[in-house]
Design brief:
25% strand, 239 residues, alpha+beta, globular, CNF1/YfiH-like putative cysteine hydrolases, four-stranded mixed sheet, six-stranded mixed sheet, single chain
């Protein structure tokens, strides 16, 4: 559990590759932090007036956040390009993805379970950034904590939907057959492949080495069922 210090910076899991971007606040909060601090207080303790989170529906919609009143918008990706706003997506096995355009001070936060991955939601978020002027070769992305392929078995219909999103080599890297009609799927590998195919530089792409199913510091629906909570991937720009 964290103490009553005025900020949560020490509790955030960061991507070191994004630490050099001026003004960017980012990270993932696991169980000890999100279970101990009210969501409204998370923003305050990180120096923001509010935390904007969507009503996640396992879809592929991207919402452009223009103010703190966007809380609860039905979507699974947020685009932020204004300083002073902190956004977040929730997870309990589904990876969250942070996509950043450093030069334009724009970012997208994406919740990408198997349905979102099958609908290429991370590429829809990237396209939204590009429409505002981002250059794909300059964009950086971080895939946050999520369930690993060893712990995420799915059935044939899910496998068929995911197979259409990447080339055969990437699909083979992501999938490990387990029993007839089933296989373990590493969604992070699929997300990496989608982003690389869209033009991201390999050294601009990183991934948190955490399996939410096997690490008790993170929430996992596959492990804990309906009683599972949700961890948080967040990011925003300082004023």
């Amino acid at each position: 559990m964290i103490d009553d210090a005025p900020d949560l910076a020490g509790a955030l899991l960061h991507d070191e590759a994004l630490e050099d971007i001026p003004g960017l606040v980012h990270g993932a909060l696991g169980r000890p932090a999100v279970d101990a601090v009210a969501r409204a207080d998370i923003a305050r303790r990180l120096g923001f007036p509010a935390l904007v989170t969507p009503k996640q529906v396992h879809g592929a919609a991207v919402h452009h956040v223009r103010g703190p009143d966007c809380v609860g918008t039905p979507c699974d990706a947020l685009l932020l390009d204004r300083p002073g706003l902190l956004g977040g997506v929730l997870g309990a096995d589904c990876p969250g993805v942070l996509v950043v355009d450093p030069g334009g001070r724009r970012l997208a936060l994406v919740h990408s379970g198997w349905r979102g991955t099958a609908e290429r939601i991370v590429l829809r978020a990237l396209d939204a950034l590009i429409a505002l002027g981002a250059e794909p070769t300059q964009v950086r992305a971080w895939i946050g904590p999520g369930i690993s392929g060893r712990s995420y078995e799915v059935d044939e219909p899910v496998l068929e939907a995911l197979a259409r999103t990447v080339d055969a080599a990437a699909y083979d890297r992501a999938v490990t057959p387990t029993r007839p009609g089933h296989a373990g799927v590493d969604l992070g590998v699929l997300l990496e492949a989608q982003l690389l195919a869209a033009g991201l530089a390999p050294d601009h792409l990183s991934r948190a080495p955490i399996c939410t199913y096997t690490d008790p510091a993170w929430h996992s629906f596959r492990r804990d069922g309906p009683r599972s909570g949700r961890h948080l991937l967040l990011a925003g720009w300082r004023e």
